[in-house]
Fold this protein.
Amino acid sequence: VWTLRKRKDSCVQLKMVVIIKGGDVEQLLSMERCIEAVEDAFRSVGNEQEVEAIQPLRTVLKLPTNGFFGSMPAFLKTQGTPVFGLKAISIFNENHSKGLESHYGVITLFDGTNGLPIALIEAGSVTGIRTAAASAVATKHLARDEKGMTLAIIGAGLQGRTHIEAILCVRDIAEVRIASRDHKKAIALAESSSQKFQNRNIRFVAMQSIQDAVHNADIICTCTASATPVIERGWLKSGCHINAVGSSTPIARELDTQTISQGRLYTDRRESLIKEAGDFVIPMKEGAIAEDHIVGEIGQLVWKKIDGRRDASEVTIFKSLGLAIEDMAAGYALYCAALEKGNVLKIDDFFGNGHQ
């Protein structure tokens, strides 16, 4: 038997673990709500008056089977409620050739006041939506805001699909160009997106090349598994904004050195960028940039502690590493939505009679 905790603004229920399957994630958590939750998480990270977030670096185990295993713990005060947890995730980039997703994993969510586990959530679907939500927050604060903008999506997998939805939430987009190493996937995503957003006056086009896709694009999202640059500075128009999402290891990057060195660079977490992002680490090793090239974190931008775009000609870049606090924020929002709607798997008295 569970009881509703009386703490203000909390939806935590005691002695019950909620199980949220991947197929339920998008039904329970809208992109708009996820963007709101992730922006609130960035705000917590940027709060210097009170400890509302603890975000250590992830631990990554390189596997002898051509994969990686990541462990991402965090604490977050979200919606007035303290929670903590862990995302455990596997990354096998060659899975696409086998008809599988590249990322699989689970998120465990705990009550921050007593340590009780409250939810077990399929992580791949959450990663897809919260990563795109983080890019949307960055786009909201950094991209030019004009009517009829052009969005370029590089990569036609899960992240490509969710990034289309996320960017459409924060900017007026007239055309979406999609490029992928597998052109058939680009065509399929363009067609499915056109159907999904048929009530909006948006043109979806599968492009033959990445260069063609980014030509004169206002907003660019790179969502690839490439280890080498897929974007060159000479292809970009002045004033564009880039969300670089795909790479998250020191030896892989999506943007060439000139793009990084000439762009105004922001990230989700400075420490993660310096240690984990090949988009930053490689140009720094080349001597093209130093640590002071980093303008700051999105949390600082949300708090207006640092400047965003200074003029319409600047190229702004958000290098996303993906933080566990984003998973905690999205996970708690999912948990509350699941309890509200009631149509989820629930395990009462998870610990049995041995725990009172």
